[in-house]
Each structure stands twice: as C-alpha cells, then as structure tokens.
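Subject line: Sequence and fold of a protein, written as structure tokens
Area: Proteins and the way their chains fold up in space.
Start of record: The labelled sequence and token lines come straight after this line.
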Amino acid sequence: MTPIKALTLSSQRSHLTRLIGLAISFLLLCLCLVLSVTLGAADIDLETVWRSLIAFDGSTNHLIITTVRLPRVLVTLVVGAALAVAGSLMQGLTRNPLADPGILGISAGAALAVVTTTFFLGTVPIQVLTWVAFAGGAIAAIVVYTLGSIGRSGITPLKLILAGAVLTYLLSSLTTGILILNQRTLDDIRFWLAGSVAGRDLDVLLPILPYVGIGLITAFSMGKQITALTLGEEVAQGLGLRTGWVKAIAALVVVLLAGSAVALAGPIGFIGLVIPHIVRVWVGVDYRWILPYAAVWGAILLAIADLAARLVIKPQELPVGIMMALIGAPFFIYLARSKVKQ
C-alpha cells in the first residue's frame, strides 16, 4: 500500500470513528432526556410519559410532563449546547485553555444588564431581556479584551483570566448592590441569578430559539477557520484566512450564544470551560468536530447537573448553577495549575 493510500484510509477511519462517537453521544443524550422527564419530585413511568404525548387527558402526571418537565428539558438542552459551543469558540479564538463565558466576564455582564433593566423597568418581555443580555455580554467582552491587551506582551492567557476575574467580581458586586437596594427585584430573579432552568416554559424558550439556532449554525460553519486560528495568526494568514473578519464574527457568535443562555437560565458557569477539554480527548484539535461534539456534550452535562440538582435534596431542588460550580471548580483549578504555567 502506498503512503498516500495509507493516509487516505487512516483519514477515513478517523472520520468514521468520530461519526460513530457522535452517534453514541446522541444516544446518551436521549437517555439523559428520558431520565430528566421521568425522575424528579414525583417519579413517572415511561408509559405515562408516552401517553401524555399521544393521548393527553389532563391528569396531574400528564400536566407535569407537558407543562413542566418537557419544556425544562428543552431549555436545558438549548442552554447547555449554547454555553459549550460559546466556550469552545472562545478557547479557539483566544488560544486560551481557560476561556469560558463565565470566567471571562461575559455572563456577569449579561446578568448585570438584565438585573439593571429589571430594577428600572420591572417585568420586561423575554425578547427585550435577550437583547439586553447581548449588549451586556458584548460590553463585558470588549472590556476584558482591552484590559488583557494592556502591556508590551499583548494578550496572554494569564492576563485574560485576571482581567476576566476582576471584571466578574466587579460586575457581580454591582449586581448584588442593585438587588440589595430593591427587594422586589431580588424576589423576582433570585433563583434565576444562581443559574436555574426551573419554571421555564415554551413561551420563554421559543423567542430565543432563533438566536441560538443562528449562533450554532454559524459556529459549525466556522470550524475550519477556527482550527486555522489555533495554529497562530501568521499561519492562518498564510493560509489565506482573513483573521480580522473571522475573529469579529466568532466574537459576535459567542455573545449571541452566551447572551441567549443567560437570558434563559441565568449565569451558569463552567460548561464552556469543561466540555471543550472533554471532547478534545476524542476528536483532537479539529474544530469541525469539536463544535458539534461540544453542543451535544454540553446538553448532556447540563441535563445531568439539572437532574442531580432535583434529586440531591428531593423533593426540594438546588439551582443547577450550584451543581455546575461543584463540577467545574475543581476542573478549573486543575487546568489553572497545568495549563497557565506552560
């Protein structure tokens, strides 16, 4: 066998392996969906779930499934996929293994914008809050990028992390201050601010779906360009890539996805940090595969975290943001020790 044929065969096998892995991931996602719908404060068998979909009779269990659990599961999938893809893009865009919408202040900026709007205007339609979250996340991203660029050495992973941490603490303090000043605002969004998918229905999800859909489709179409960027600015330009445009579009996609997730479920952290590192173990450094894998595994991880949040102190539940912090904080410490020193 010639070297070219051997290389082609190896590439085909690798492609097939990744497709099989993606199919297995979808099966695991389906299993998580089944568990999320059937388990909770009241356990419901699969037959009842199926009958609620094909022969709804208005019973308590059917109402729980159709009005509470199914919408909640769908919100979980959308938020998990959006945050995981946003984190993957950020890590590829900045070549920073610790990049994440939460760690770099984007989620905190979006949350502050939502809280401020609620403080001054009261109850606001979800469509308005979505655009407010976009604006807050975009401003925070610009500030972090600017602070991380200061100095002769330019942008480095450590400087970006420090700038993101400082801005996150500042914005979180401002958010807390606003909530202390207004008890009504605190009562309205206290659970949301901890990161929660509880109580979200289709009326909240449907207006945001187009933004998430556009963001995911655009991200998937940029896999080749993001892979080239990870090789370095000069290499990417040598390959004919217009790096300025790619970075600008990717940054807009990150804000679109992270802002949509915050508007839906509050500032849930660590999904965008953890998932890219997990999927790289299987698919390598090719973002044409990293991004779709990240979308599926982001949904899986958040579904598992939400299920644990519902069961750990059953019949009460924890905000899923707390569960993600318990999962993600040790992972962040490990990465900070192993990656930033390199």
